[in-house]
Specification:
Distance between the termini: 29 Å
Strand content: under 5%
Number of strands: 2
Helix content: 55-70%
Number of helices: 8
Low-confidence stretches: 10-19
Radius of gyration: 16 Å
Order of helices and strands: HHEHHEHHHH
Largest sheet: 2 strands, antiparallel
Strand order of the largest sheet: 1-2
Shape: globular
């Protein structure tokens, strides 16, 4: 399973708040985050394919592709938002639930998973992956949300994405983080 600290990318916060966007260091951070998300996607895809094969009674499952160009743009937008928040609030570190909220926001908005095969289990692949990445950042195991997973994926797909909604969702998943929210 992917390490939550790797997904959160705490190394970003070691840089000064006025670090110029698109600097060499910024692009290197984006590259590292894209690699982490690509690995997380492979784990996510393999579990989804296993679930589909189990439903079909065996056989081959395929049809999901990670568009790394879109993923890279989502990562750049994530870091840009985080940098803006740091400057606006004059703080060095945003707590985990805000980081998870921005992860949800950009992965859902830009939808880096491309679906080439119509299958009911693939319809919410982008929402499922974004939710999986965000809860992993918070240290919550996906199994803990199994009973509400379909509802959450539906809400993320059809709901209005705003920062307040996403932070409320993330805080609901890990109430301890909400206590220290800024």
């Amino acid at each position: 399973m992917t390490d939550p600290k790797t997904l959160r990318g705490d190394d970003f916060f070691d840089a000064p708040a006025d670090e110029p966007i698109r600097s060499k260091e910024f692009l290197e951070k984006c590259d590292r985050r894209v690699e982490v998300f690509a690995k997380a996607f492979e784990e996510f895809r393999d579990r989804l394919y296993a679930r589909v094969r189990a439903k079909q009674g065996g056989g081959h499952a395929s049809g999901l592709h990670l568009n790394t160009a879109i993923l890279r743009y989502a990562v750049e937008r994530y870091f840009t938002d985080i940098d803006f928040e740091r400057k606006r609030h004059r703080c060095g570190l945003l707590n985990g639930y805000r980081q998870a909220a921005y992860t949800l926001k950009w992965l859902i908005r830009l939808r880096p998973i491309q679906i080439s095969l119509r299958h009911p289990d693939f319809l919410t692949a982008n929402e499922d992956f974004a939710l999986h990445a965000a809860i992993t950042m918070l240290g919550v195991k996906p199994e803990a949300l199994r009973s509400n997973w379909a509802y959450l994926a539906y809400a993320l797909r059809h709901g209005t994405l705003d920062e307040t909604l996403l932070m409320a969702l993330a805080a609901t998943l890990n109430p301890e983080l909400a206590k220290g929210a800024k």
